[in-house]
Design a protein that fits this description.
It is a single chain. The chain is globular and about 50 Å long. The N and C termini lie far apart (about 35 Å). Strands 1, 2, 3, 4, 5, 6 and 7 form a seven-stranded mixed β-sheet that branches. By secondary structure, the protein is α+β, with helices and mostly antiparallel strands. It has a single domain (about 1-135), classed as Molybdopterin biosynthesis MoaE subunit (Aldehyde Oxidoreductase, domain 3, Alpha-Beta Complex). The protein has three helices and seven strands; from the N terminus they run βαββαββαββ.
């Protein structure tokens, strides 16, 4: 399941909902990852643009990988502005065994940072500034020749 929210994520509610959705699914491990906005470089927060068609396709590939391991992957991400110390990203893996969940969440989060079509902007002094120095080009993107 992929969930997109406007603004900061309500971490306790999302984690509780996901836990309750899978409580009787007989998984032995539930491993969440929560990303929060750090206070750095004088920012007031971050802002996010999401290209949903590619994100949905990318996430579906990860759902297939999870299913092959007998696991489930869930993800929530923010659109728009998220202020310091708030959450913009949550991912969680439910799996029969902890090792599967621990390894899978690591692979998923790393690939998310490298491949998800989400653009990040710094919020500074009321301005929205593209965070080029902290952005990663999406594989296959660029100008066609």
């Amino acid at each position: 399941m992929l969930y997109l929210y406007d603004g900061a994520l309500d971490v306790p509610t999302i984690l509780k909902d996901w836990y309750e959705e899978e409580a009787t699914s007989n998984y032995g491990a539930y491993i969440p990852f929560i990303g929060t906005i750090r206070d750095e470089d004088g920012i007031d927060g971050l802002s996010f643009d999401v290209y949903e068609p590619i994100l949905n396709s990318w996430f579906k590939e990860w759902q297939v990988k999870a299913k092959e391991k007998g696991a489930v992957i869930k993800m929530a991400h923010s659109r728009g502005d998220v202020m310091l110390h708030e959450s913009s990203y949550i991912a969680a893996v439910f799996s029969p065994k902890r090792r599967i969940a621990l390894e899978f969440i690591d692979e998923f989060v790393e690939d998310f940072k490298a491949s998800a079509p989400i653009w990040k902007y710094d919020l500074k002094n009321g301005e929205r500034i593209y965070a080029l120095d902290r952005s990663t080009a999406i594989k296959g993107s660029g100008i066609l020749k």
